[in-house]
Amino acid sequence: MVLHNNTVKHSIKLEPKDEVPQSMTNEKQNTYNCESCAFSTTKFQKYLSHTIFCKYPRTPTKVNHTLCPYCNLKVNSDLALESHVFSKHKELNDVKEEVELTEFKCNKCSYKTSKLEEYIVHYGTHKNCPYCGKQFISTKGLQGHVLGKHKIQNDVENKFALIYKTYENYSIGLEPEENLVNEKQNNSQKLINMNISDCPYCSFKAHSNFSLQGHVYSKHRELNGVEMKVKLTYKILTCKNCTFASIRPTSYTIHRKTCLSPRETCPYCEKKFRSPKNLQGHVLSKHKNQNNVEKKLAISYKTYKEHFINLETTHEELRSMDSEKQKTYNCKMCDFFTTEFQKYLSHTIFCKYPRKPLIVECPYCYLQINSDPELQAHALAKHKEQNEIEKKINIKTKAFSTTSKFIPNIKCLLCPFETKNRKEYILHHKKHVEKNLRCPYCFLKTNKGRELQRHVFSNHRQQNEIEKKVETSVTSLNCKKCGFNTVRNDAYATHLKLCNETKERQFHLPTHTYKGSKRKSDFPTGHT
């Protein structure tokens, strides 16, 4: 194969590669042969899956059903038959013994069953202590109980095997006595490595400086304040509600949950409240006049502002409350003031340019209208002839542009109703179309005459041309290339596109041009 290039003078020869024989490829790949059968493959994963299948062959999907000898029930397996006989025909089977039942016996009691699930549930109930009879949910909790309470008694009697996960040097082959010895050795090495410090006031031994400071602060606070034998370097956490103090954050958090804030009482009626905010609101609503004279309770500005809507207060009282802390914006036109700048701006605009609605009455029917152009439109629609004689309302030319939708132009064909507004005309026309229009040739029902005309033209055209029960003023759209007829413009346009495309496909074949070379498929049919 040779490739020529017009711009370059040289050419390139491309020779095909020599094909590698299959014998060479088979020599490189390893073959895996099965020992139990004549299976062989070159892929290691297939070889593994086959060996597993040879050792453990799968049971066929079609199960040989076994029948119960007492009720002829079909069962899929022997285990299902044993469980069925044990639950339904146990007494008969004890006499006849036609089915051998594999029973699970409990080692700790005389319980027997043929179901493995029931045996597991029963075995979980034997988590009681052999010495005191206390029940436990897990074996881990039972082992911890025996280690803590009956350790010496269990070493002598050996009723319970102590195999506990907290032993560090634990192995499956060790006996419980060896495990206890290893635990003691590990604990002694830990105590030697740790810096043990004794309390100078008692026989307490602390393993860290933090625990020693916590012990001294909680037990010997007064003695240490005088003698100062132990320096307290950690932060002391004190409770605000009581005299509790501690270095440990865990004990402080536990105390905070139990120690609640003292309930604040009302100085006038002795009612108790959780927070000072609720107490101030109670005093404002119940004992306001009494508190203004005696002043037993100081009320903040925020709570006063919240209760301002329900109380009859003046602006001077609000200005006297904590006005120095928050900046207030006072209106120069009126007595309005606020602490928010945006509300102040909106209020000043309203004061300078107040929006007062202009209410005008019609001189003929005394209807109240908000503006002059609406009054002029109302006079044109309702009192046109009367206004031309009396001329109580001056109708301007600008009113026609703003209120052109009220000028009557649309007339109802069934009644003398007239209006310019399209929505009013549609609502009025629905009153005349309460009865449904029916097709005289089928069971179609519609409320629109246009739909009925289209339906008759498309479905019952020939019959309607003879009888002429429905007048059809619909123009039919016919295709010149084929015998297609329709009434709708959108369906006719889509049909024309499809009709033209199909004819173009018949006479024009697709051509593909390539820059480099030419192929046989590019030429039209018949060219060689």
Features:
528 residues, mainly alpha, two-stranded antiparallel sheet, two-stranded antiparallel ribbon, disordered N terminus
Topology record:
Layout: E1 2-3, E2 12-13, H1 22-28, E3 32-33, E4 40-41, H2 44-55, E5 66-67, E6 74-75, H3 78-88, H4 90-96, E7 104-105, E8 112-113, H5 116-123, H6 139-149, H7 151-157, H8 176-193, E9 197-198, E10 205-206, H9 209-219, H10 221-227, E11 237-238, E12 245-246, H11 249-258, E13 264-265, E14 272-273, H12 276-286, H13 288-294, H14 301-306, H15 315-320, E15 329-330, E16 337-338, H16 341-352, E17 360-361, E18 368-369, H17 372-382, H18 384-390, H19 398-402, E19 410-411, E20 418-419, H20 422-432, E21 437-438, E22 445-446, H21 449-459, H22 461-467, E23 477-478, E24 485-486, H23 489-507
Antiparallel strand pairs: 1-2, 3-4, 5-6, 7-8, 9-10, 11-12, 13-14, 15-16, 17-18, 19-20, 21-22, 23-24
Organism: Brassicogethes aeneus
Domain C2H2-type: 129-150, 266-287
Keywords: Metal-binding, Repeat, Zinc, Zinc-finger
In words, what does this structure look like?
With 528 residues, the chain is mostly helical. Among the domains are: 67 residues, no CATH class; 68 residues, no CATH class. The chain is flat, with a radius of gyration of 52 Å. One of its GO terms (cellular component) is nucleus. InterPro entries: Zinc_finger/UBP_domain (IPR050688), Znf_C2H2_type (IPR013087). Keywords: Metal-binding, Repeat, Zinc, Zinc-finger. One of its GO terms (molecular function) is zinc ion binding.
